[in-house]
Specification:
The complex is a heterodimer of chains A (about 200) and B (about 290).
Chain A: H1 6-15, H2 23-35, H3 38-54, E1 56-57, E2 64-65, H4 71-74, E3 82-86, H5 89-97, E4 104-107, H6 125-134, E5 139-142, H7 148-161, E6 167-170, H8 186-194
Parallel strand pairs in A: 3-4, 3-5, 5-6
Antiparallel strand pairs in A: 1-2
Chain B: E1 9-21, E2 25-32, E3 36-42, E4 61-67, E5 73-82, H1 85-88, H2 91-104, H3 114-129, H4 133-150, E6 177-181, E7 186-188, E8 200-203, H5 204-215, H6 229-247, H7 252-263
Parallel strand pairs in B: 3-5
Antiparallel strand pairs in B: 1-2, 1-4, 2-3, 4-5, 6-7, 6-8
Helix pairs in contact in B: 2-3, 2-4, 2-7, 3-4, 4-5, 4-6, 5-6
The chains are: A alpha/beta (about 200), B alpha+beta (about 290).
Bound molecules: zinc ion (2 copies).
Chain lengths: ~200, ~290
């Protein structure tokens, strides 16, 4: 066991809890923090504290926000007839950064995973149904990952939504841009074939 | 080949479940014929362009090349044999498949069991091909019954499991209720019922189906569509109680399966006139297993 002064050992322990940070990286980060100007370390500590204290889920869509309702939900230029359903706030940000979508979002807070015991009741689905009753949505886009868990979630939601007479769509599933058809796997080709469109 | 050698070993395996690891990796729980159940990391599998992205999905049958790692084995190469893509396209099929995979996940690690691998492989294939509710139910119920039998708990139907007395059901009395003891592993005659205070009762039709399913070579060998909704539910209850009693586990995917099954009720058929008078028309004496 390597020796570290107690406060340093505590910092290392916390850093190692972060994703992708192993002991070596933690050590590098800790020594960087140790040598950094005092105002930088204060700002870092404050930012960590603020993000925990001030960021909470938007009461309407579940996106991260520091207000009651997030900027996207409040934006009057957004197309209110389109609602894009995503698993996590990170997925929302990815779609938002693609600059392709001008509707609004609903964050489920995860995807269904029967083996892990994550069923519909653990997800933000009741709030989604309530929104659909109150808001004038014409199309729901199911933007979940093309995984078994994502598919399960999409099928479950599609069964719930179809009787409401809404248009229910799913992100196109296909060959990644720049990919060679000859090297694509069965699942990708099957998905691309099912999702084919008019030329 | 020794699992401790650094030479990669091949494994034809079914992905039972996956968990995210770090930022880009997945840990897969695999069931193989050669090596039994084991875990392996699919590095970078969560990146959409990864060659391991599609193969590291539950229900996939693939040929893996696995390298022994320091703490976890690593799947370096994989080729999909059956992606079973239709399962994920249907909620009921997914619910059954997840439940079957979770059942397989209770076996101890690294104990080769070719029969179990084959059982899951055939059941997933049947679920992938299943068009209607009946075919999916047949695959799931067949798996449960065969799984019990594989573990040595095939129920004795048609004779009293306690005293050996033959249990006879009058003709046209398919719905006659008969005592079934999950813990003793079979039907009980009227005189022996009190031997199991936790006994269930089920219609003769359900118990006959349980008997046939435990011995059927494939899901297609048994016609689930002949069972009424009620008889099917009671067959599932007998199977489920038997699994719970003998395996002593609580399966998380069970609740989801129950919800999906009750949301999609099967067509209720009128009870067909039974031809056989003995509860289980066995020419051979019931299995001692
Ligand atoms: Zn919002
Ligand atoms: Zn008896």
């Amino acid at each position: 066991m390597l020796y570290y002064a107690r406060p340093l050992a505590q910092l290392l322990e916390q850093l190692e809890k972060l994703p992708t940070v192993g002991p070596k990286t933690a050590q590098r980060l800790a020594f960087h923090i140790l040598r950094a100007p005092r105002e930088d370390t204060e700002a870092l500590a404050q930012a960590v504290r603020d993000v925990r204290d001030k960021i909470k889920p938007c009461t309407r869509c579940g996106n991260f926000t520091d207000q009651e309702i997030c900027d996207i939900c409040l934006d009057p230029r957004r197309d209110t007839s389109l609602l894009c359903v995503v698993g996590e706030p990170l997925d929302l940000m990815q779609i938002e950064n693609s600059n392709e979508f001008r509707g609004r979002y609903h964050v489920l807070g995860g995807v269904m995973n029967p083996i892990e015991g994550i069923g519909p009741e653990q997800l933000n689905i009741n709030a989604l149904m309530k929104r659909l009753s109150e808001e004038n949505v014409g199309e729901v886009i199911l933007a979940v990952s093309p995984t078994v868990e994502g598919e399960t979630t999409a099928n479950y939601l599609a069964n719930l939504l179809r009787p409401r007479g809404l248009r229910v769509t799913q992100l196109a599933r296909g060959l990644p841009f720049g990919g060679d058809l000859g090297y694509a796997d069965q699942m990708t080709i099957a998905g691309a074939m099912r999702g084919r469109r008019d030329f | 080949m020794s699992r401790f050698s650094s030479v990669p070993y091949p494994a034809r395996a079914i992905v039972l479940r996956t968990r995210n690891l770090g930022e880009k990796d997945r840990i897969m729980t695999l069931l193989s014929a050669e090596a039994g159940k084991f875990s392996a990391v699919a590095r970078g599998a969560r990146a959409p362009k990864s060659k391991l992205a599609a193969v590291s999905q539950p229900f996939t049958l693939a040929r893996f090349l696995v390298t022994r790692g320091r703490s976890l084995d690593i799947a370096t190469q994989a080729e999909v044999e059956r992606a079973h893509t239709h399962i994920a396209g249907d909620l009921l099929h997914t619910a059954w498949a997840a439940y079957l995979c979770e059942l397989c996940d209770i076996v101890p690690e690294r104990q080769p069991d070719e029969a179990l691998f084959e059982l899951l492989r055939v059941a997933l294939e049947a679920l992938d091909q299943a068009g209607e509710r009946d075919q999916a139910d047949a695959a799931g119920l067949w798996f449960e019954a065969r799984f019990l039998a594989l573990l040595g708990y095939a129920p004795t139907i048609g004779r009293c499991v306690a005293c050996g007395e033959k249990i006879v059901v009058p003709p046209n009395d398919d719905s006659r209720r008969i005592a079934f003891s999950p813990s003793l592993g079979g039907t009980l005659c009227a005189a022996c019922q009190s031997r199991d205070p936790q006994r269930l009762t089920a219609p003769a039709q359900s118990l006959r189906a349980l008997h046939s399913l435990s011995r059927a070579a494939s899901p297609e060998a048994f016609d689930v569509s002949s069972l009424t909704t009620l008889a099917r539910r009671e067959l599932r209850a007998c199977l489920h109680r038997s699994l719970v009693v003998h395996l002593e586990v609580r399966l998380r995917s069970r609740k989801f399966l129950d919800e999906v099954l009750s949301a999609a009720p099967c067509a209720s058929l009128p009870a067909a006139a039974p031809a056989a008078v003995p509860l289980a028309a066995t020419s051979a004496p019931p299995d001692a297993l």
